[in-house]
Amino acid sequence: MVGLGPGDAGLLAPMARRAIERARVVVGYGTYLDLVPRELLAGKDVIETGMTGEVERCERAMAEALAGRDTVVVSGGDAGVYGMAGLVLEMLAARGCVGEVEFSVIPGIAALLGAAALLGAPLTHDFASVSLSDLLTPWEVIERRVDLAAQADFVLVLYNPRSKRRAGHLAKAVETIGKWRGPDTPVGVVRRAYRPGQEVFVTSLAGFDPGCADMLTIVIVGNSATRTAGTWMLTPRGYGRKYRL
Ligand code: SAH
After folding, report:
1. Residue 99 maps to a domain
2. d(Cα 100, Cα 103) in Å, to the nearest integer?
3. Whose CA is nearest to atom 18 of ligand 1?
4. DSSP 164-211
5. Within this chain, do residues 90 and 165 fall inside the same structural domain, yes or no?
6. Beta-bridge partners for 45
7. Are residues 139 and 189 in the same domain?
8. CATH of residue 121
9. What are the tens digits of pLDDT across the range 23-82?
10. What are phi and psi of 110, to 5 degrees?
11. Ligand 1: which atom is nearest the Cα of residue 113?
12. N or C: which end of the chain has fewer CB within 10 A?
């Protein structure tokens, strides 16, 4: 299981690159495969599947691996953060194949880390990540997690913030967070981190327009201490209370 990082090949970890180089078979969703430098795919069997074909993708990868071929399944970001590592392990376990094939996860730079870096330092204190996709998780569960994480003053990272089918979810999530946070709370928006067309800006909870996000966006809502520093977003860890800065 290989995480490719948020986009730019410079953020593909050397260990991930080596795993792809070594593999005979590379399995992935089309837009993830697009993140793999072309030269790494030369001479390999590339199995490309559609967006909702996760189970099929795992099935194909397992069949290849069980047939003795060195196979990598690629995910954007990190393979275990809303990625394929969990599903592959789940399917190997369901079929009694754990231990039959060598399994390993090569970490990647998750999109939340890329987004945080572009915004400055929004995640220097405790944070919670919530995916707003209700394809596999009921909306009530998602909303409850957003609500309780906001109440506990976590910085909130919102993954999968929007799609055409559920355009209202991001607005609802932000409204829920607004029960616990002031209108001036900084909100960082990062679209297409480390990819062509990258967009990064910081706004406030009151000024936030859910229409600015698409499915390649991460939204980070600050905690009660988060502030801006110039154009950056900053969540102080607390040094300023202890030391003279
Ligand atoms: N495994 C990935 C997450 C996959 S879920 C990881 O480790 O980050 C897909 C979601 O990730 C998208 O809806 C979006 O919210 C986020 N995402 C992935 N790549 C991104 C990028 N380059 N810029 C901004 N958000 C991104």
Report:
1. no
2. 9
3. 111
4. STTTTHHHHHHHHHTTTS-TT-EEEEEESTTSTT-EEEEEETTT--GG
5. no
6. 25
7. yes
8. 3.30.950.10
9. 999 999 988 888 899 999 999 999 998 766 889 889 999 999 999 999 999 999 999 999
10. -65, 150
11. 8
12. C
CA–CA separation, 114 and 34 (whole Å): 18
Residue with tokens 């309780």: 148
Looking at this protein, which amino acid is placed at residue 123?
L
Q: How far apart are CA 42 and CA 36, in angstroms?
A: 11
Residue nearest to atom 5 of ligand 1 (CA): 82
pTM above 0.90, yes or no: yes
Phi, psi for 155 (deg, rounded to 5): -65, 140
Say if ligand 1 is within 6 A of residue 54 CB: no
Question: Residue 235: which of 245, 219, 222 has the closest Cα?
Answer: 222
What's the CA-to-centroid distance between 15 and ligand 1, angstroms?
A: 20
Residue 32 lies in a domain: yes
Q: How many domains does the chain have?
A: 2
Task: Report residue 166 as tokens.
Answer: 């559920």
Planar angle of CA 239, 111, 181, nearest 5 degrees: 50
Confidence of residue 226 (pLDDT cuts 50, 70, 90): very high
Q: What is the mean pLDDT of residues 87-96?
A: 94
Q: What burial letters (b/e) apply to 122-131, b meaning 16+ CB within 10 Å?
A: bbbbebbbbb
